[in-house]
Structure prediction request, 360 residues.
Amino acid sequence: MIKSLLSHDLPRSRLLGALLLLIVLGLALTPFIFPSTRALNVAAKMMIFIVLVASYDLLLGYTGIVSFAHTMFFGIGAYGIAIASSRLEPGWGAVALGLGASLLVSLLLSLLIGLFSLRVKAIFFAMITLAVASAFLTLASQLSDFTGGEDGLSFKVPQALQPSTEYLEEPFLGAMVDGRLASYYLLFFVVLAAVLLLLRIVNSPFGRVLQAIRENDFRAEAIGYRTVVYRSCSSVLAALFATVAGAMLALWLRYNGPDTSLSFEIMLDVLLILVIGGMGTIYGAVVGSVLFVLAQSYLQDLMKLGATALDGVPVLSQLIAPERWLLWLGVLFVLAVYHFPSGIVGRLRAGLVTPSSKHD
Prediction:
């Protein structure tokens, strides 16, 4: 049953299996274990990044296509929901229309961008996608009548997802059963379905061909596979999943703006998460997203505690000052990449071999 659900792509490591189970249970029970607003926001961000990074893994990890326009599709999904919900009567009809329109736009744009990969080499294709993403960010910032410009768009979600909607008068297991909780579990089940669907895709014959193209596209072409079709399909699928992630973000925040979904920093975060978690695994997106968002959200708090404990110690108290949290976050990532060259998931699947023994 579990094998079929995971498309026969098991963790292949007891430690990885336990870690994935812990993540799923942790996300499922967060509203009851950590009912604070901040904890819910952090968990929701983890889930949104899981879908976004997993979709990019399909593109980069499985097909070998380097694109810097991935967050553009993320932004299209968020803007689709925001524009439809702010211009129409708030409800499921507006959400469906916004999601449908954004998926259609992403499909057409990704198909167009995907065809460029046939005409130019990898590095030039990456530069083209970067230019397209920058142009889209500029358009979103300047078309203020349509997108809200730099201020973005605030909107109402369907009544069932509004925080003011209470389903029970009394808290259940310490958590209020309201629209916010409904929004959280909507995200949870969408993420679960998206990850299982991506596992199905990458473990299908289609996914095997993508991996063959990644390893040697000339050989894949020589044995009869039309690499243009497979690359284009991979680009479209990755874009559609990223669009869904953007729609999730908009529904959760009830707001969208250029910096929220189109910032180049998000693209850098996605690349970091993918490298740390492990490319070409899908599971790497899950593990990497959770660890990254945890570090990003709570490292500064931990450093505040450390700075308080070491108050008065000349050098150490300055080194772990809370305002230097980005420096230490960078150090942690460098160490992670050094000790886990194939990503955390790749290392766990390899049986925790040391880097030195791996090269022997």
